[in-house]
Write a structure and sequence with these properties.
By secondary structure, this protein is of the alpha/beta class. Helix content is 43%, strand content 25%. A hairpin with a 2-residue loop joins strand 1 and strand 2.
Length: 300
């Protein structure tokens, strides 16, 4: 009889590609991963792992069994989802991920509401960039992720996921209060062709969107500063060091010395939740989506 937890370990190894990655994803030690794999090899009577430099790789038998393990675990997830749906209770564990703005703007109210309404539900959360969060949901490391599409740049979405709209988030341009356009009610992105930009980390999804959008308007952006968090970006703007795109969700009070102005051709992000299709009937997923929507109504 194949042990389900050992199959889960094998599946994590296949997905993460290393013992350390599997251990982190399963929240166990690397020693525990190795022990589980040794026991699984004895159970099946075949070698599943082979040394590969300092790491390991799956053998042909390991890849074959890993493919079966992924399907078995998906069926187990579906069975658990159906049982939860039949019982109709919002209980168990729910692991949430979101990009920083959504984590700041939505999670406090949404998670507090969930805990108050469903005391039998254990909730954990983590900040994570959208592309990484999608992959984490596919791997099963998280149950639900809050991600985004920019109005002109969708986030690549693999098969096997379900999504639900949460909110549309408008973004403004933030500039120093002494900026030549600070007195205006509306601006165009083209108005800042000669300005220094404060943007996100290089190659992040939102940074790629900004570079793509400005270049599509004939502007080669002059990036002066990069910062992961919007409060840091706004602090740099307030010091007169550039301009930035400032989404409204989770923005908080704008620092003294900063003015935000609407963009004439609206710049917005569509924020939504994604989860695995085999978990679609879980009441906890549905409750989380409703809590996120409620939090969004209060936030924007």
């Amino acid at each position: 009889m194949l042990n389900l937890e050992r199959l889960r370990t094998l599946d994590a190894l296949a997905r993460h590609g290393s013992v350390s990655g599997a251990a982190e994803g399963l929240h166990i030690t690397t020693s525990a991963v190795s022990q589980q794999m040794s026991k699984l090899e004895r159970e099946v009577g075949q070698q599943l792992l082979a040394k590969n430099g300092r790491g390991v790789r799956l053998t042909d038998a390991g890849r074959l069994l890993a493919d079966h393990a992924a399907r078995i675990l998906s069926q187990v997830e579906l069975a658990q989802s159906d049982l939860e749906a039949q019982r109709g209770q919002v209980v168990g564990e729910l692991r949430l991920a979101a990009f920083p703005t959504a984590a700041r703007g939505l999670f406090p109210a949404a998670i507090a509401g969930l805990r108050a309404a469903h005391p039998g539900l254990r909730i954990g959360s983590r900040e994570m960039e959208p592309e990484s969060a999608v992959q984490a949901v596919i791997r099963g490391d998280f149950d639900l992720a809050v991600v985004l599409d920019w109005y002109n740049k969708p986030l690549p979405m693999p098969d096997g996921l379900v999504k639900a709209s949460i909110v549309d988030d408008t973004a403004d341009v933030a500039m120093p209060a002494t900026h030549r356009h600070a007195h205006r009610d509306e601006v165009d992105l083209e108005d800042f062709a000669d300005d220094d930009w404060v943007t996100w980390g290089e190659s992040e999804f939102c940074d790629e969107w900004l570079m793509h959008t400005l270049r599509s308007k004939g502007i080669e952006p002059r990036v002066a500063h990069r910062a992961e968090e919007h409060p840091t970006q706004l602090a740099l703007v307030g010091a007169g060091l550039g301009v930035c795109v400032a989404p409204r969700l989770g923005r908080g009070p704008v620092p003294e010395g900063v003015r935000t102005v609407s963009v004439r051709q609206s710049v917005s992000r569509h924020i939504y939740a994604v989860w695995r299709a085999d978990a679609d009937r879980r009441p906890s997923i549905r409750a989380a989506v409703e809590a996120l929507k409620s939090a969004a109504e209060q936030a924007v």
